[in-house]
Sequence to fold (301 residues):
Amino acid sequence: MKHSLIASAALALVSIGSADAKIVGQTFTGATTSQPSELTAEFPTGTKWTLRVEWDDSAAPLFTSDTQSQWRVTKLTLTLQGKSGAWTCSSVSGQPSFTLNEYGGSDEIQFTSGWGPAAHTNQTIGSLQPYSINLVIADPTGTAFNGVTPVPSMIDLSKFDMSQSHLKFYLDNNATKTLFGSIDFASDPDISVSQGKNLKDGKSTVGYGKVKTGRKKSRTFTIRNTGEAPLVVKAAKVSGKAKKDFKVGPMTKNILAPGQKKTVKVTFKPKKKGNRKALLKILSNDPDEGSFDIKLEGKGK
Fold:
């Protein structure tokens, strides 16, 4: 089971804007790994942080090239959970941006606030003034996204290496006082499907035996979330030459919390005599088994 960013597996989220502006956003969380001595007492190593970013997904990019595209961020807010309470720094609207970069074999998403103390609504942290906030999500393999123009409407964060990703919070222009932070991991959802016994994705076959044409026989499949994050069951559908002989029943409760399960009934009603085969595909947000495939077989008589 892979790991993904704790916030979500995709960058484009629910629209909160008008018909002309499609504002989407993302929340990142993590913990500090090092900080300037001036901040050690209030923000020791391991201090939790949260970064919220929002942007207009319908806006044109600020600039594009073969290897880089940049968009304006409408909101960028960093919150540090210090010993005395939360300290929040928000970038002035219109200043921050996010950039997609392709560096000859590696991919990167970079969120950056404005540069200089005047670019931030809260201009002091202790005796220091924040200069810039920078969050980098890295993919050393260069396979996270294909092309930077136009911006992908959905970016799969499970393709990025969180161990290579980080938060940098510059407290001066020379980067001599920099707060570093790592991005937290969260366990992904994990789909498990059974029909009397546990089934294997792409390998298991469920048989219906012999059924007279015009008659029907049903099998009930149990879908479980054995992971530690919500499992979203998007759809269950049948494909193949005999797909019309197999019908998927209605599904309810499509979001399964860790440990929860649901059932779906698939009915075989042969229209012709002879062997009838199809493929049941259960689609979900499982990063490894987004399409859980089960072979279906029956014989019309």
